[in-house]
Amino acid sequence: MSQDLSELPTTSYALLGLLTLGDDLTGYELKQRADRTLRFYWSSPAMSQVYSELARLAQHGLVAARDDETEPVRRSRRYRLTGSGRQALTAWLSSTEAEFPTLKHPVALRLLLGHLIDPEQTLHLLENYLGQLAERRAELQQVRDSLGEAGDPAHATHRFPRLVADWGLDYYGSERTIVDDLITRLRNGVT
User: Fold this and answer.
1) What's the pLDDT at 60?
2) 3-state percent breakdown (helix, strand, coil) of the chain, nearest 5
3) How many Cβ atoms sit within 10 Å of the Cβ of residue 155?
4) Which neighbouring-strand residues pair with 64?
5) How far is CA 37 from CA 6, 7, 144, 148, 185, in A?
6) Residue range 108-120: average pLDDT?
7) Buried b (16+ CB within 10 A) or exposed e, 15-24
8) How many whole angstroms separate alpha carbon 108 and alpha carbon 60?
9) How does 131-151 read in b/e, with b if 16+ C-beta sit within 10 Å?
10) Conformation bin of residue 165: beta by default, left when phi > 0, alpha when psi is -120 to 50
11) Above 90 in pLDDT, residue 176?
12) 80: which DSSP letter?
């Protein structure tokens, strides 16, 4: 069991963090949890990446795996965070700086190249994006609603996920304001 954790990618720590939210999970269930949560602010890992990271985390003793005997058709493994995993996650959170985010925005890239197409196509792109923003914000609102409110003792572990969900909702709101302004400027010929 190696103790050098310097090669662990951020995705490993994200998966460890998802395991702190309770329950022993199969890789599939962890992928579902990642899809429901991480996709709003971090890349949700592919299924194969979840399994490779779980194997790496188990090799380091950060997660414990056990065969799930309740699955009659096919065997599956359940993973839970170990004490060492919690310590590694806490150390990572406490001792490393968060990288400044890299904006990888396909709509902004297309807007940058908008001079190559008809202005109406660019407007359509931005209007379509507004619809996508509204859909994504509604999905995140459902997640936020499921996390309960601050005074609810049953949801005490969801304090920080609530903050992240609120941040995401504000982000989508500000993104809508920005895009509305861009549409107005394009329609009025102001760039």
Assistant:
1) 94
2) 65, 5, 30
3) 15
4) 80
5) 25, 24, 10, 15, 34
6) 94
7) bbbbbeeeeb
8) 40
9) eebeebbeebeebbeebeeee
10) alpha
11) yes
12) E
Residue 153 pLDDT: 73
CA distances to 27, 113, 133, 169 from 19, rounded to whole Å, are 11, 42, 29, 24
Query: Measured between alpha carbons, how far is 86 from 114 in angstroms, rounded to an integer?
Result: 48
Amino acid identity for residue 112 in this structure: L
- Cβ within 8 Å of residue 56, ≥6 positions away: 8, 12
Q: How sure is the predictor about 47, in pLDDT bands with cuts at 50, 70 and 90?
A: very high
> DSSP alpha helices (H): ranges in 38-118?
47-59, 83-95, 106-112
What Å distances lie between residue 96 and 7, 89, 161, 171, CA to CA? 13, 11, 20, 25
User: Residues 19, 24, 30, 35: is their CA dihedral positive or negative?
Assistant: negative
pTM, two decimal places: 0.81
pLDDT band (50, 70, 90) for residue 2 = very low
CA–CA distances in Å: residue 127 to residues 27, 82, 106, 132: 38, 47, 14, 9
45 neighbors 53 (Cβ within 8 angstroms): yes
User: For residue 185, what are its two tokens?
Assistant: 């400027």
**Distance (Å, whole) CA 74 – CA 30:** 18
